[in-house]
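Example 3.2
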Amino acid sequence: MAPPQVSELIVRYLERLGIDTIFGMPGAHILPVYDSLYDSKIQSVLAKHEQGAAFMAGGYARASGKIGACITTAGPGATNLVTGIANAYADKLPVLVITGEAPTYIFGKGGLQESSGEGGSIDQNELFKGITKYHKIVERTDYLANVLNRVTQILLSPNSGPVLLSFPFNVQKEMVDDAILDTIKTAPASCSPRDHSKPIAQLTKLLLEAKSPVLVAGYGCIRSGGQALVSELSESLNVPVITSLKGKGVISEQSGLSLGSLGVTSYSPAYRYIAEESDLVVFLGAGFNERTSYLWDKKLLTNKKIAQVDINEDQLEKVFKADIAINGDIKDVLSGVLKNLKTCRPLRKNHEKVRRYLQDVEKQPADNDYAVFKSRFPLVERFFAKLEACLPEGTWVFDDNIIFAQNFYNVSTGNRYFPNTGVSSLGHAIPAAIGARFAEEKSTWAILGDGGFQMCCMEIMTAVNYGIPLNIVLFNNSTMGLIRKNQTQQYNKRFINCDFINPDYAYLAKSFGMQYRHVASEFDLEALFTNDDLHKAINLIEIPLDKDAFPNYISKR
């Protein structure tokens, strides 16, 4: 049997990594790899724009926990990936990027779409240097095994991120020894587990001694699969749980021990409880970023003890000094704490404080920020209540808007909420949701405003082309809402480049071949959840909003 070309070896490598779907757009410089994909079981998905392909790969990785992949040609194919790959980098998502490149023999001569960096051409390596864990233009095959092993190590690491490999056109067509694949270690590297018994004992002691401890659970709890252990620890001691935005759903937000999520766009009692009641804050896989920390408000962590558990060593004590900082897997650490607690039968903490704070939310005066917020968006609140009540366990929600879901949508442990974090790029929700839906058949929703919608709406045709069911919720206020809010409150209503004219979305939906529902009343909302197919159809759901109705944040309640 003849040895394979590099292009075929790349596809076999993707298969060994367990990649079953790759998102992208072909071009002349990457066609050898596409030709090898023709005979592969890997599904190649044609996006409408390379940025959409990158967001799809990130959505796939985020929802499934597996490696996402995207593929493009050289030049503009690669440059169009930048925002989506930056988003994956910020979210530490394992995304493998394959790009083509001009042939090596024309490097530096002004080849069409060349990105080698030679002779004044675009330098693709420099372009992706700050947004990938590893990037390489593979100009020769003699070190290909080393490159692929390095890529594999990063993609399978607990602290992963995107990697990019670019293959010149002529290198893709070179013959290569397929024994290279046998040198690739596609199993996660095994390492000797650290002995965390001493810090776990110290953390247990802090929890037992504290009068009002609180757990701050982040996305790290979800990535580790430690949600059940967080709930068990919370319930065993009557310790309330507060989440980061990305951590919504670590414990059920219907629980009497859930105080909602922290953040400048949150109206939950979380901030007040930490600042006024807690004497111990335990961060579990939660970064104390600008949004979560209320712009790093010192009052949150003053005069209390702090413990932090994170598998990413770079996160430990990045913002604050901790009394205990444990670099370890959250599941392992919490298992150790729970084991210690079972041997000492501790007294449970006073639950009345938590109950009182939750009741206070409902007793606020009518001019309170949260009451005003609810009064401005009653239909939106009802929509999320119906979403919570009517949809099955296992629902996925990708959300560009954030503030409505953060306050109106109670996420259960059986559902997943994917806020637009990362670099917070508008237009993320639709392609990310499409990518996730390729990973698994779930009831999937994309929620975004009309500004973001017009940045990505052509990717709906990707869902249409492949028959991917999807529910798109479009908040229509004919403005860039956050910009208009800021220009109202900070710039004396000197509106510039925030308002725009929308298309007729009923006609747009019809032209795309999807279902449309205009929701302007309770009656429309009831009809949506009663009559429409929200599981097997592609739906565009338009909800009109007043362009001058703004949420009032920062709120610390």
